[in-house]
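STRUCTURE:
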């Protein structure tokens, strides 16, 4: 690439870093992030045993465990690996787009440069990529590994004398499998792509005219170079799955738990269309109307059709990595294991953005390409700004603000009782004094997706314990509004409410944190209830 293109890519990388680093030190941790912090902070042996009770593999937690040992666990330090990983995914997407473009037009450096720049721009500005690229979760690392494994696979298939690329691909794919459960769908996408390539080669070999045998010695047939590379690719893919094999029994056990108890919605055609439109074209905070979902689905289908029309193998690989995870998750969900959620598709969405860049980069004239860049940038920025307007992070102190309030006004030894683990883990993270802080445990217990994998008996307060609290002040944290519903601790009638504070959380589904201060009178007889 020319120096000018490298400078533009460096600028896009810096922009991606800045967008993802915004508010990383001041935004309140929410439940998923606090769960990750609690799990990653455990000793490695306990981390692995408790990760089995979650529904994701342990690689990201292990990486974060080592990072926390080096840098501490402040919000900015916890989120920094995701920020850097998300920005590196931007460059990896540009590398993948450039390689695919060079394969389609070997002599056109301009097309490769346009594709790389557009892919970097779309990934850097996409609202979904920005949101999950700045959280204490594995999605940023998974996106980087998903794009990297596709790029290394294609480079290995088409490069000359670079045998080291095959173990590199196996390592990338194995890391992806150990980062997120959807890595299985990414592996499946590559497997189906390679199977299609093998079938195509077989058809070509059958149609190739036979050489005349008269007067020629019989020479054993040798596999074609493409055939040898396919054999290497299949072997590398099987090696990645072999490395993942020790986790497969855990995956099957997790699948059984997901069938029994999980939070995702039932899969319908309208939900699939809306989810795909949200992830690829708008953001998770913009709920599309049915007509918008249908239009978005048509637009994505047309983009995929344009990508694979007379496409080379690289374009088919990108299309497979974009479509197969969505199709597989829909089929698995329809079969009874509901695993379709918008942010789980972020790895496939990254490939969709690369594919869209390859299609848009076919604008040949510089003026046309400038218009394409301007329109793509404006479309991505509008969705990003809409998401920021919905969040209003500066006006959402959430669990961080609630913890600060409790730290400022709470006396030593006063208990804090949180009505749900969805708030308990963030509150515990942000509190400076974590003694005598409990989550109230109802008689029926909590669903597994409420973080039970990291909760212990010392975290919980049973109803009978609540009824025997000593006289004094008690801090109660309730949840109100939002997509998670309402959870309020039904306190004894004898308790006197002294104060109430409401603090909005960052994400709409979290609702409001409601902090109430009660006085427990001496000798009060109580009949506490659980959260409702």
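SEQUENCE:
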């Amino acid at each position: 690439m020319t120096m000018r293109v490298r400078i533009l890519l460096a600028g896009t990388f810096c922009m991606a870093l800045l967008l993802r680093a915004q508010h990383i030190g001041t935004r309140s941790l929410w439940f998923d992030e606090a769960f990750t912090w609690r799990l990653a902070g455990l000793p490695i042996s306990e981390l692995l045993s408790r990760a089995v009770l979650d529904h994701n593999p342990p690689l990201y937690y292990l990486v974060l465990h080592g990072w926390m040992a080096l840098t501490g666990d402040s919000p900015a330090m916890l989120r920094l690996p995701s920020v850097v990983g998300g920005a590196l995914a931007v460059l990896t997407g540009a590398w993948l787009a450039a390689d695919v473009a060079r394969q389609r037009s070997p002599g056109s450096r301009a097309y490769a440069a346009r594709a790389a720049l557009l892919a970097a721009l779309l990934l850097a500005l996409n609202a979904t990529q920005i949101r999950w690229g700045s959280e204490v979760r594995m999605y940023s690392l998974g996106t980087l590994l998903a794009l990297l494994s596709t790029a290394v696979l294609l480079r290995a298939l088409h490069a000359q004398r670079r045998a080291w690329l095959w173990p590199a691909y196996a390592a990338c794919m194995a890391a992806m499998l150990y980062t997120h459960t959807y890595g299985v769908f990414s592996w499946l996408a590559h497997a189906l792509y390679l199977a299609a390539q093998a079938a195509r080669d077989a058809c070509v070999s059958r149609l190739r005219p036979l050489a005349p045998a008269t007067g020629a010695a019989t020479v054993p047939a040798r596999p074609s170079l493409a055939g040898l590379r396919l054999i290497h690719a299949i072997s590398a893919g099987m090696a990645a799955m072999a490395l993942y094999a020790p986790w497969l029994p855990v995956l099957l056990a997790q699948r059984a738990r997901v069938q029994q108890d999980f939070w995702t919605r039932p899969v319908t055609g309208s939900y699939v269309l809306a989810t795909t439109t949200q992830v690829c074209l708008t953001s998770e905070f913009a709920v599309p109307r049915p007509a918008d979902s249908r239009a978005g689905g048509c637009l994505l289908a047309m983009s995929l059709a344009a990508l694979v029309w007379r496409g080379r193998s690289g374009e088919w690989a990108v299309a497979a990595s974009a479509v197969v995870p969505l199709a597989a998750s829909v089929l698995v969900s329809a079969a009874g294991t509901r695993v379709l959620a918008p942010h789980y598709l972020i790895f496939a969405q990254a490939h969709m953005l690369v594919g869209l860049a390859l299609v848009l980069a076919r604008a040949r004239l510089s003026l046309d390409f400038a218009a394409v860049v301007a329109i793509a940038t404006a479309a991505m920025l509008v969705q990003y700004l809409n998401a920021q307007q919905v969040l209003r992070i500066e006006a959402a102190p959430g669990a961080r603000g609630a913890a600060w309030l409790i730290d400022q006004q709470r006396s030593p030894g006063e208990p804090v009782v949180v009505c749900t683990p969805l708030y308990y883990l963030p509150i515990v993270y942000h509190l400076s004094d974590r003694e005598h802080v409990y989550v109230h445990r109802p008689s029926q217990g909590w669903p597994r997706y409420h973080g039970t994998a990291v909760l212990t008996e010392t975290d919980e307060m049973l109803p009978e314990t609540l009824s025997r609290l000593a006289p004094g002040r008690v801090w109660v944290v309730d949840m109100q509004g939002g997509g998670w519903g309402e959870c309020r601790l039904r306190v004894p009638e004898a308790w006197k409410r002294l104060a109430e504070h409401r603090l909005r959380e960052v994400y709409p589904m979290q609702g409001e944190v409601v902090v109430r201060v009660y006085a427990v009178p001496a000798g009060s007889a109580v009949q506490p209830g659980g959260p409702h």
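REMARK: The chain is about 60% helix and 5% strand.
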